[in-house]
């Protein structure tokens, strides 16, 4: 599903580049044609006065063509260009060599450059073919009294074929460039994620070595040289540290064996810890979108239960839903804070869930029940799953 928008974006960028390239080239040769026509004696004064407004119309049409993906600006350009060529060829007494050059520059260069934007789709190629046949036939017939039709046709074929090749080359090169850039970006993200994962693994190993393993070593030696109260305090610090890690936090080492821990408080801001949960699952490949209340105060024990239950629900989404994104909506009133976790995954039949399964029953329902909260589960096969968590304030 994500490939289609990406391909459409590539097509838009390709068409925009082709349109702007065609505009610059067309307007450049249009300027040359006007200069040739303005040379004294190129055409009579009346023809010049009739052609100048048409050149201005061509300027507007070609400029607007560079801003729009529609061929609606290109077809009128062909029509106006043909009229200008007929006027130049029909000047009384015939045009001079400068007038002939103006007509050739217009037909085989300025109008031909519009082909750059007409090489990407079947409809545009049909417009390209029709435009070439119309411009070429009129130009060859109109200028035959003044120069060899083979010379005129050769100039037309060279200009239109060259412009078409340039358009095809740009049109085929842009998607390849975009895909290569995307491939480089994916490789960079994969390398960065691998580096971050390795750094987290090493930090986790150091963290456990400096705290939990040190405590276990003391216990293994019966706590020789350490008072019972100190052991109890150290074990409590380790427990709080592990709880922070479970919620996605990254404690900062202050010294060997010492890490900053959140001081026990009666109330904690929910928004500061939701971000940790989001980042944790983001690192594991689950994109979590948060909606609703951003700052909610909860007692620390209720907050712990709420966040751990929420994390377990997101873990179930990551493991079982078959999708890589989930939505969490936080709402509150005077007595209750709610979290609604939804995904658009495979879903399931509630009655088919193994009653002996402890994941949702213990990690979500029982945990919330301990703080007088509750959880409700809704799911339908093929329509995703929704879990509503509620805890008292």
Order of helices and strands: HHHHHHHHEEEHEEHEEHEE
Shape: elongated
Which class of secondary structure composition applies to the elements?
alpha+beta
Task: Please compute the radius of gyration using only Cα atoms.
Answer: 37 Å
Relative helix content: 55-70%
Largest sheet features: 5 strands, mixed
Poorly predicted residue ranges: 254-266
Number of helices, where a helix is a run of at least 4 consecutive DSSP H or I residues: 11
Q: How many β strands by DSSP?
A: 9
Q: What is the typical, i.e. mean, pLDDT?
A: 80
How big a fraction of the residues is strand?
5-15%
Adjacency order of strands in the biggest sheet: 4-6-7-9-8
State the end-to-end CA separation: 41 Å
The tally of domains stands at 3
Kindly describe this structure.
With 393 residues, this protein is α+β, with helices and mostly antiparallel strands. It has 3 domains: 178 residues, no CATH class; 49 residues, no CATH class; 126 residues, Heat Shock Protein 90 (2-Layer Sandwich). It contains 11 helices and 9 strands. It has a 5-stranded mixed β-sheet with strand order 4-6-7-9-8, covered by helices on one side. Strand 8 and strand 9 form a beta hairpin. About 3% of the residues have low confidence.
